[in-house]
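User:
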Amino acid sequence: MNASPALTAETIAGQILARFALYRVDFQQRTAQARARFQDADWHGIQRLGRARLSLYHEHLEEIVARLTELGLATVDDNQRQTLWRAAKGQYRSALAQRPDWELGETFYNSVYRRFNGSEALARDALFVDTSFSTPPAVADDSPTTLLKRFTEGSDWAALLRQLLAGLPLSLPWQDFDRDIRSLVDALPRECPGLRTDEPLHAEVLEPLFFRNKGAYAIGRLRQGEHQWPLALPLLQDELQRLYVDTLVCDADELSIMFSFTRAYFFVDTSYPQPLIDFLAELLPNKMRWELYTAVGLNKHGKTEFYRSFLDHLEHSTDRFIPARGIKGMVMTVFTLPSFNTVFKLIKDKFAPQKAVTREEVKEKYRIVKNHDRVGRMADTQEFNNISFPRDRFTDELIEELTSTAGSVVHVTDEHVHIAHLYTERLMTPLNLYIAECSDDELRSALDEYGNAIRQLAAANIFPGDMLLKNFGVTRHGRVVFYDYDEISYLEDMNFRYIPEPRTPEEEMSDEVWYSVGPNDVFPEEFRKFLFGRRTIKALFAELHGELFDADYWTSLKEDIEAGEIRDVFPYRRSKRFQPDAETP
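Assistant: Predicted structure:
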């Protein structure tokens, strides 16, 4: 069918750009509301705001797809449609060059294109597989001279910090401003190795604050001579809504954990995303740009950046995809590229009999994790539809595994392995393998982390369901993270029970469960039996986290959640806190 007279390349480009602009206004408005939520100590409101902001992209995408469908784009024949898209891309690119968020606009355009051409090979001349700007366009109007506020007070550290804190865009009273200055001054030599008292100290702090959960964060860096250190100042409130600085972070690894893929996305003004990410990349050189875009809430463009980095990596590497290390999953088939720090997860066509879930239920579990506060203990994922890999990078054995376990979504040709649906996730060492290979000191730390992960997930209203060690991974920072979501539930939906005492000798000797068990009943006493094989590990875990075997412990957490309590989970070690025993709401 021929295009409607109203459907021109200029119309397509203009409609997409107009909808993108509306999306960005909505996104920025939701982001800006986080400051008020923080100042009102409305922690549930911040969580709702995060979920609402995540849904915006899909809502605006549906609007523009409906509008272009109404104009007849879906009924245009393939050749004419591709001609329209190629011309529309040029029109759209010219308009994007006037926007400071041009890179996000490319991603939005790609999303629209894929909705109309999802099953076709990506046409590089019709969409932005690569960015069309070799250098960022110079935005003529309203471009910021800088995103940074700069502070210099010679060798008077206290004066510099006073100036910095006093300029923060918050209107709350301070709990004890002078005490916080003293705490920061005392911490500086400890947190900044090589810092000298006889040289001027300079600070550069990003103008916008970063908000997440119960915290506001001032992010920047300190400079002295040729030395520089990243800077993060976590700001919390007490029960009287008075502000205080909780700690000082000046280490790139510790800052990296604050921007981890296991945490909820920050609320921060992204009016000028590219210079913001440039600055964060300087502070966190080990983070990929896609990780930083994702961390500040621009997860859709983070997905674009990830895909571009993946294509570039394929072009500059020669290793082959292999099955991921660890025990084979009953729900997912998982493979990886050894030189690329990512796993690719496909939902199997058939599950083991003990897995009473469907494909759609598994997808819903992953959506829950995407929208939930991950509290540093659940890995974020990226979901892809219709993605192709070069066939020659796969072994015949892996092809056999993929087609035999997930053949409904895998199509193999001489040149490509086409996968209709998959998830990507950060590569981690499975906890069961880590424990089998680690030292005694590392074992104790890993088991403590494992218990803390379960506790913090529970406090965030997540019951992992299948808590076997193989479903948790260890990050490069030694943190234990949950990554298998097919059995997760909300903790408040579970019923935690003690195993009843047997009433007769026959019940006591029975190999079968003789008492009634509801679909959501959990017996924490049983964790002792199936979580650990070795007695020494079982004893050590009981020493560290014995409460997890007690139904009353879980019930108390459930009661706190039902009462509306949101527990504190800090993205840094509690031992770093200036007032580790301080009560926060």
